[in-house]
Design goal:
Blueprint (H helix, E strand, L loop, with lengths): L2 H12 L6 E2 H11 L4 E4 L6 H7 L6 E3 L4 H15 L3 E5 L3 H4 L2 H9 L4 E7 L15 H4 L6 E4 L6 H13 L5 E7 H5 L1 E2 L20 H13 L3 E5 L1 H5 L3 H11 L3 E3 L14 E4 L6 H8 L1 E2 L11 E3 L4 E5 L5 H4 L10 E6 L13 E4 L2 H14 L7 H13 L8 H4 L2 H7 L9 H11 L5 E4 L3 H9 L8 E2 L10 H11 L5 E6 H6 L3 H8 L4 E6 L4 H10 L22 H7 L3 E5 L5 H10 L4 E6 L24
Parallel strand pairs: 2-3, 2-4, 4-5, 5-7, 6-7, 9-10, 9-14, 10-11, 14-15, 15-16, 17-18, 17-19, 19-20, 20-22, 21-22
Antiparallel strand pairs: 1-8, 12-13
Length: about 625
């Protein structure tokens, strides 16, 4: 070692702890203090000071996405898979605006996300400076809270508050916008040990009286159903839910965000409900009705649904409820949620309870020891079993699929070898033994992934549920794999969604992130096309993604594209090759893309048209 290096090392050791630091160094130190080990960050003029500080961090891994939106979705995937807040960063102007979709997605799905943005110097704010946007103002509707840092001394406090706000109560995204001059200024940081936010009271607990009322309802009812959402996963309440459901033998249905809160292979599981949810889950909540040919016909009930609905950690999303005033129309609804603003917002309920759902479930389990529920609902279980046997999720290769011109051009007489998306996901479930973390893009493949990859544990299905953001799947898979390196992570994607953030193949390759992708390639925007078929006489409104001048070609050539990124990829077209190809994908010790050619004629079933009722459910194509 040279004398110069030795001298510098000695000076560093002897330096007192209270030397001034730059704002960027204080920020990085504050992130380290919050336990941050990974940040997805794309540099630019207004954030490069922070990147310089990150190069000196020994605790934080900085991953360079190839697009800020990809970085935001990756941070979300990290958060959803780990339960810890995800952190992303971008520069001012276009860098910041490219984060907005990921921030909005985190807001809709209640995901803890810290989004840091560089900003032009304070003296230039409001003057139309180069790459200036008011990201603070632009994101106000889609953040839980936001900060514009105006003084270097505020950084330690703001960072600590940001993580507390993002993770406490109902989780959500927090924006921290830092002008460049604040990053460059120097100060001696003062590290807060507590957070004091007057008026913010995220800890809410149900009273014993409220919880005993639930047990009273369960002792009197005949057809109870647990309707569970992502709030249970956010609260870490899955174990308590399973204990409660198993003790009382109450059937459990979930939202897509709630997939995995209860094992979907259990006899008590009703899977998930709503627009494309299970027929038996929808019937159990709403009752079974004579199918209507049009919404003006009267509702004629065949069998009753839930008489008590325990809605835990849900928000009565329109994709679940359909026509909201008809959702569990004749049942008594108990709604437990940490966020009081969700009570009576969409569905009016008889018993709204503000509470942390983990506390409520654990307390219910404790109360059962002194106040047991006698009923066991045998007749209800028999009815649910009959529904499940009559209308399971299922698929078949129809004549329409086999004569589809899209498939005929490629199968060339081997029509019986066609691969359906549902079939591919089924095989993936078997080969992976149901243990993989699954991410998705948005569209038909997203619904089929939730239908055919039966979740067994929380944080297993990571999907853009509320915002429905295409391009989410692959970067989210990268983030999930970084968070859970010992678990298999597979993105089940559509060719349309995958193409929106395909540049993140470079991130996977360079950062050696071993996430896998199954592209369900039907050359179309499948879900939009399904609606065209159902409601627009199959008139195609720009939903074909292939080459209209050469419909025999699979366009783009994903094998060639992946090769350009030095990522392995193979294409599968025949059923006989599917299982072995999926096994090769899972066995690969590197990023891997499997391009599976599927027909475009398939529709996701069941299907309750938007704003309609369970009586309008289409069970089979």
């Amino acid at each position: 070692m040279s004398k110069t290096k030795t001298a510098k090392k000695a000076i560093a050791k002897a330096a007192p702890a209270d030397l001034p630091m730059t704002g960027s160094a204080i920020l990085v130190a504050a992130l380290e203090r919050e336990g941050v080990d990974t940040i997805f960050a794309y540099p630019g003029g207004a954030s490069m000071e922070i990147h310089q500080a990150l190069t000196r961090s020994k605790k934080i891994r900085t991953i360079l996405p190839r697009h800020e939106q990809g970085g935001g979705f990756a941070a979300e995937g990290y958060a959803r898979a780990s339960g810890k807040p995800g952190v992303c960063m971008a520069t001012s102007g276009p860098g910041a605006t490219n984060l907005v979709t990921a921030i909005a997605d985190a807001y809709m799905d209640s995901i803890p996300l810290i989004a840091i943005t560089g900003q032009v110097p304070q003296a230039m704010i409001g003057k139309g400076a180069f790459q200036e946007t008011d990201i603070f103002g632009m994101t106000l509707p889609v953040v839980k809270h936001s900060y514009l840092v105006t003084c270097i001394d505020e950084i330690p406090r703001i960072v600590k508050e940001a993580f507390y706000v993002a993770t406490s109560g109902r989780p959500g995204p927090v924006l921290v916008d830092i002008p460049k001059n604040v990053q460059q200024n120097t100060a001696v940081p003062v590290w807060p040990t507590t957070v004091e936010l007057p008026g913010y009271q995220p800890e809410q607990k149900a009273t014993d009286a409220q919880l005993l009322n639930i047990l009273d309802l369960l002792d009197k009812c005949e057809r109870p159903v647990l309707y569970c959402g992502g709030g249970i996963i956010s609260a870490g309440a899955s174990d308590a839910l399973r204990k409660f459901a198993d003790a009382l033998k109450i059937p459990v249905t979930t939202t897509i965000m709630g997939c995995g809160v209860y094992p979907e292979e259990s006899p008590l599981s009703l899977r998930w409900l709503g627009m494309h949810g299970s027929a038996f889950g929808n019937w159990a909540v709403n009752g079974e009705y004579v199918p209507r040919k049009n919404p003006t016909e009267p509702l004629i009930k065949l069998k009753d649904g839930a008489d008590v609905l325990l809605a835990f950690g849900v928000r009565f999303d329109d994709r679940v409820t359909g026509k909201v005033d008809k959702f569990c129309e004749h049942g008594v609804i108990v709604h437990i949620d940490i966020d009081a603003s969700e009570h009576q917002k969409n569905r009016k309920v008889q018993f709204p309870i503000i509470s942390d759902i983990k506390y409520a479930l654990e307390r219910l389990n404790a109360l059962l020891k002194t106040r047991p529920v006698a009923r066991r609902y045998e007749a209800w279980h028999k009815q649910v079993a009959e529904w499940k046997q009559r209308a399971p999720f299922g698929y078949k290769v129809t004549e329409e699929v086999m004569i589809s011109q899209h498939m005929k051009d490629h199968l060339k007489g081997l029509e019986n070898e066609v691969i359906l998306t549902q079939m591919a996901i089924d095989v993936l479930y078997e080969v992976s033994q149901g243990k993989a973390i699954i991410t998705t893009g948005v569209g038909q493949h997203q619904m089929w992934a939730a239908q055919y990859y039966r979740c067994q544990f929380p944080r297993q299905l990571l999907t853009s549920a509320g915002l429905g953001a295409m391009g989410y799947g692959y970067p989210a898979a990268l983030g999930a794999k970084v968070a859970c390196p010992d678990k298999e992570v597979v993105d089940i994607d559509g060719d349309g969604s995958f193409l929106m953030n395909i540049q993140e193949l470079a991130t996977a390759r360079i950062e050696r992130i071993n996430a896998k992708v199954m592209i369900m390639n039907n050359q179309h925007l499948g879900m939009v096309m399904q609606w065209e078929d159902r409601f627009y006489n199959s008139n195609r409104g720009h939903t074909y993604l292939g080459d209209p001048n050469n419909r025999q070609a699979i366009y783009p050539d994903y094998v060639a594209v992946c090769n350009a990124f030095h990522v392995k990829c193979e294409r599968v077209m025949f059923r006989k090759d599917l299982r072995a190809a999926i096994q090769r994908m899972l066995d690969a010790k590197e990023p891997y893309v499997l391009d599976i050619v599927v027909p475009y004629t398939e529709h996701v079933m069941p299907f309750i048209p938007a704003g309609r009722t369970v009586a309008d459910m289409i069970v089979e194509a």
